[in-house]
């Protein structure tokens, strides 16, 4: 049974930082590309970043240089370090495989105040 549990969100002022975590179970985590996605109010879910099994990373232009994705295969956990946060980063953040599964976790809310 697949489980993806996101945590670490919260309310932060613009310019602040947050670190999100994604705990995965029920999937062969170490051999899966994993990604972060987000959905802002009234908008479609969008891809934010992903990391392949050997650690290569890709980022959306909107977060490049501010966000860092990483993974710990021994812990079946993925992270997203978010720095220099902007109000437009406000969204519910989800983790999933790449390409994504039909299953989605509950996500973690990130709210950036101006």
Task: Give the tags.
10 strands; six-stranded mixed beta sheet; four-stranded antiparallel beta sheet; globular; mainly beta; 114 residues; 0% helix
Explain what the structure shows.
This protein is an all-beta fold and 114 residues long. Helix content is 0%, strand content 50%. A 6-stranded mixed sheet has the order 2-10-9-4-5-6, with no helix packed on it. A 4-stranded antiparallel sheet has the order 1-3-8-7, with no helix packed on it.
Distance, first to last CA: 40 Å
**Number of strand segments:** 10
Question: Radius of gyration in whole Å, from Cα?
Answer: 13 Å
What characteristic shape results from the CA principal axes?
A: globular
Widest β-sheet, arrangement of strands: 2-10-9-4-5-6
Q: Biggest sheet: strands, sense, closure?
A: 6 strands, mixed
Question: How much strand content do the residues show?
Answer: over 45%
Overall mean pLDDT score? 96
Number of helices: 0
The run of helices and strands is EEEEEEEEEE
**Any low-confidence stretches, pLDDT <50, length ≥5?**
none
What is the oligomer described by this structure? single chain
Q: Determine the fraction of residues in helical runs and give it as a percent range.
A: under 10%
Helix-strand makeup class: mainly beta
């Amino acid at each position: 049974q697949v489980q993806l549990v996101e945590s670490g969100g919260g309310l932060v002022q613009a310019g602040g930082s947050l670190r999100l975590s994604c705990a995965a179970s029920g999937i062969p985590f170490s051999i899966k590309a994993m990604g972060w996605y987000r959905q802002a109010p009234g908008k479609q879910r969008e891809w934010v970043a992903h990391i392949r099994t050997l650690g290569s990373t890709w980022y959306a232009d909107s977060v490049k240089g501010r966000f860092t994705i990483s993974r710990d295969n021994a812990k079946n956990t993925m992270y997203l370090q978010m720095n220099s946060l902007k109000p437009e980063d406000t969204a519910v953040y989800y983790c999933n495989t790449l390409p994504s599964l039909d299953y989605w976790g509950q996500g973690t809310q990130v709210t950036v105040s101006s």
